[in-house]
Structure formats: C-alpha cells, structure tokens
Design brief:
490 residues; alpha+beta; Butyryl-CoA Dehydrogenase, subunit A, domain 2; Butyryl-CoA Dehydrogenase, subunit A, domain 3; 4-stranded mixed sheet; 18 helices; binds iron/sulfur cluster; binds fe (iii) ion
Amino acid sequence: MIRTQEDYLESLRGIRKRVFMFGEEIDDYVDHPMIRPSLNAVGMTYQLANDPEHTELMTAESNLTGRRVNRFTHLHQNTQDLVNKVKMQRLLGQCTACCFQRCVGMDSFNALDVITYQMDLDLGTEYNQRFRKYLAHVQEENLVVDGAMTDPKGDRRLSPSQQADPDLYLRIVDENEDGLFIRGAKLHQTGALSAHEILVMPTRSLREEDRDYAVACAVPADAEGIVYVYGRQASDTRKLEGGKIDVGNYQFGGHEAMIIFQDVFVPWEWVFMCREIHYAGGLVELFAAHHRASYGGCKVGVGDVLIGAVQAVAKAQGTEKASHIKDKIVEMVHLNETLFACGLATSYEGVRAQSGTYMIDYLLANITKLNVTRFPYEIARIAQDIAGGLMVTMPSEQDFNHPEVGPLLEKYLVGSEDFTTEHRQRLLRLIENITLGAGGVGYLVESLHGAGSPMAQRIMITRLAELDAKEENALKIAGLLEEPSAQAGD
Ligand code: SF4
Ligand code: FE
C-alpha cells in the first residue's frame, strides 16, 4: 500500500509509461524537471493524510472495507463527506497553489458507483459489483486514478459515428471472450502522468448508432498501446533553467497530457459500461456536477495563496495602507469566499442515491462552476493591479546573480526598506505564475473550460431552474391565479 509521498514516487517508477515531450520520447518521467512538480503536488495528497492535524479531512472510513482510506478513493456516504471533500480541496490548494490532480478520479468513482448501480437495477447487469471490487483494490493500494472523459470530438456538428474519422471519440473496436479493445484519445488529461490507472468514460450522451462509444472501463496507466503527449504551459521551460525564483512556484505545478489509446486491451472484469447508450449522458452529467463542485474547493485554496501573495507584495512595496489597496484585497476575499460558499452549499444540499453514495446538488454545482468561470479572472485582475508592471518586466534570476548588473538590480528594484529585493522578486514571480504563467492553466483557463465550458453550465441551469414553477408562484402572488384554499375560507 502506498502511504507516503516517497512510496508514491517509488510506485510510479515501476510504471513504464510512453511519454512524449518536445518531440522526444522521455525515459524518466518521474524525475523530469518539467513533470516532477506535478508529482510533488499529488504527493501532498499522501503527505497530508499522514499529518494528524489533517487526517480527519484527508481520510474516511470506507463503506466497502470498513477501513480508513484516503478520501480521494472514497465513496461519499453522507453530506459531511461532501463538505469534507471541498474543505480538503481548499486545504490542498493552499498547500500547493496548483492543481493536485487527484480529484478527477475521485469524482469519477462517485459518479460511476451511482450509474452502474442504476444500470444493474434496470438491466440486471453486474457492473456495480465489478466496479466496487475494482474500487476496493484502488482503496487498498491507495492508487491515483485519472478519470478520462474528454474526447477530441472532431466536427462538433456530427455525432461520434458520423465523424469522418470514427476514432475522434474513443470507442470499442474489437472484443473477445477475455475483454475489449479500445481506440481513441482523451484530451486535457489532468494528472495523466501522475496516475497509476486510467478510468475511461464516455464524453457525451449517445444514440443507438453510437453504441460502440458507450464504454467505461479501467486500464493500467502503462497498458500496451497507450501513449502520452505532454501539454505545454505558459513559461513552462523556466523549469529547465535550473533556478528556483523565476518559475514562481518551484515545488509544485499541475499538468495536462493527451492520452492516445491504440487498440488497448481491457479485461471484462474492468469494464463498467459496454454499449449501454442510455446511461452515458447520466454518467457525464453526474461526473461533471461532482467536478464542478470540486472547483468550489481547489480554486479557493489557490485563491488564498494569491490573496496572501498580494497582501505581502503590497507590504513589500509600501502600499498596504492605501485605502484602495485594502478595499481591493477585500474584494478578492469576497469573491474567493463566495466560491467556497457555493462549494459548501452544493455539498450540504447533497442527496443519497440508490447505491447509498451521496450526490451533490446538481443546480448548485453548476452555479458554483459558472461563478468559477468568472471570479478567479477578476481576482487575478486585481492581483495584477496591485502587483504592478514589474511583475512582467522584471529581469531574469540570472541577471540578479550577475556580478555587474546584479547589485544594480538589487539597488533599483527594492521597495520598502523593511524587505529585501528578493522578497519582492519572489512574490511577484508567484503572482505571475498563478495569473499568467504555468499556474494560470489551472487557476484561470481550467476554471473556464475544466469540467465543461460555461455554456454547458448554462444549459444545465436552464434545465434545473424550475422556471415554470417560479412563474406560477409569481402569478399566484400577483393575484393572477385562483388560490383554492383561500376560496374555501371565504
Ligand atoms: Fe482537483 Fe481542482 Fe485539479 Fe480538478 S482542477 S483535479 S478539482 S485540483
Ligand atoms: Fe479539472
């Protein structure tokens, strides 16, 4: 069983993934300077679970085995579990200032449990039993699982089977008595290289002609036929420069990769949906809702770091007492805590599904995410406002170390005499990292598009808002509808 950060890194060394970056295949992805910060961030999900101060938040009693397991592998058994999940995500965001990648697997488990149970009830299949056996193994080993949903999608006007290339959505291409073979790709895969296993799911609701696209299954991350292509991030090659300051967040960082499945074999025991088209849409919606709620935790934690950095840089620059600076920081806090309030409300309003696993409130989850598509951008704008232009014009770390210009930079780039120039330099680089550097992928663009772009939330909100009931109620209050009980009293 993987218990510590060190165990985790060691376990990955045994998983030989085929990884491509900058046009080359990489031998050692675990120790690669571009990738290691991501693994460190996932490592924090193990480290904090061993910290007595955080054990309660980071672990839970498994309903499958009765044993204490890492919360990232847990099926939520009540609303407190949902609340604890969001609090755990905020804590990890605070500790890493980036995406710690393990939530996609957790949100997939909780969606798959509910949907496979429903399939078994309706169809007499045994998917839930299979899935729970698989999950018990994940819990016992304390594995990191990458939930893989987003297909390339090709021409958005066409369904999966109508595409010029049928592989633009992942599909079943063959099967035999032992299992299935799948082909396709999954894009934007958060934490793909950090994972021990991949949990494949369909990306949209499907019609009869798309039966081969209705597949959910688990595969080892190094299964034969899987290839990873690492995704670029802004300023990513600063990690290769050897310094510790210009990267902004030296220790941690998220990553995304494209995963390509070239006729990958999946044994039947790890297949949790096979051509049941009517359940694909429900699985996508439930997973998305869980992940949208998750953003009410993780993005808030990163926001906490950004607010802290802004407060500190204001002090380093001598602006912290200016009333407009104080007011702008209050605005950042207000926006950040509003996101947290949304994540918590979504959890407190959670309901029990038939499988016993708890689901978040769908409407509030979508409201949470729609706010997440906006507030971090506004928080980042204020952060850049307070930080000032030096954040993007400051010379490199190497220049600060140069014998001739280094001392000149020290002299001219100092702020308040109470702080060193390096203090200011590091804070500005951290703000740069989160708001427009490598960290901006997770804090901003992922806030916009992750777990579905804003329009996806608007569609769900339209569907769930009960506008007809609201209208009827308004008509009643306006005296436009007869009230039967009022008449009876007349
Ligand atoms: Fe978790 Fe947030 Fe990263 Fe998604 S974006 S995996 S919710 S930390
Ligand atoms: Fe995400």
